[in-house]
Amino acid sequence: VAVRLRPLNRNEQEDAWKVQENTLFLLDEMTGKVSDTVFQYDNTYGPETLTKDVYAQSAKAVLDSTLMGLHGTIFAYGQTSSGKTHTMTGTDADPGIIPLIVSELFERTETDKDRDYSVRCSYLEIYNEELKDLLGDGSPHLRQSLDEGVHVAGALELEVHSPKEVIEALQRGEVKRAIGATNMNVRSSRSHCVFRLFVSSTKAVQDGKTNRRRRGVSDVTVRRSVLTLVDLAGSERQSKSGAMGKRLREGSCINRSLLTLGQCIKALVEGGKRHVPYRDSKLTRLLQPALGGNR
């Protein structure tokens, strides 16, 4: 678990936290000094940290596992206007986790002389507990089978060959996202967005005479993994967001699904025979293979 603090916005006057190594210290509201409230995480990042450094320390290892055939998941969690979308998507000057991980993915697959790779992507939105395909016009729905487990049927999976093609797919999907204004954020994400990269690879076969790699000829050893990158909608309190009507319903759906996500993660951490409530939310049902893993 990594925690990143964003810079103060125009409505904020003083820092409430101090970052020191992998620890967050709550500052006393009256004195500004370090209080007894302390939280420790795997990594903590102050407002001055660039996303590329967050990626190198906290996200790169997930890509390593994905290329080895293991499912990987990265999601940004926090209240609305806390910087989740900035961290995941970023800007041209400060690229987010998604463009950084995509760039390295293709760099490594293109230079790997031992394996042949194929990459597909999908982009899904969960809005008010309804699943929407941000890349296609179909009606995606969740299914479960013995062979594939929990999977999405009816969603477009686009074959991609370069970072440019992935970014173009992301930009196409962003246009269709559900965005709205609240008191806490003039451009608040009103939905969860799940971007998935399906990575398949087979061992490359060398030509016995020339010792050159024979493209398109592979053995039967296949690695299949899914890298799931999630930009969660922001949790919020109605008293602060000023949500009414449609916005209130959106906020209620968001908060319920985030609560279920927390319950699933807690159950997985505790282990044993405890029931994991994947079915209580479309979000956790969709993320079941990502959270539970494939090993």
Automatic annotation (TrEMBL):
GO terms for cellular component: microtubule. It comes from the Eukaryota. GO terms for biological process: microtubule-based movement. Residues 1-295 form the Kinesin motor domain. GO terms for molecular function: ATP binding; microtubule binding; microtubule motor activity. Keywords: ATP-binding, Coiled coil, Microtubule, Motor protein, Nucleotide-binding. This is Kinesin-like protein. It comes from Kipferlia bialata.
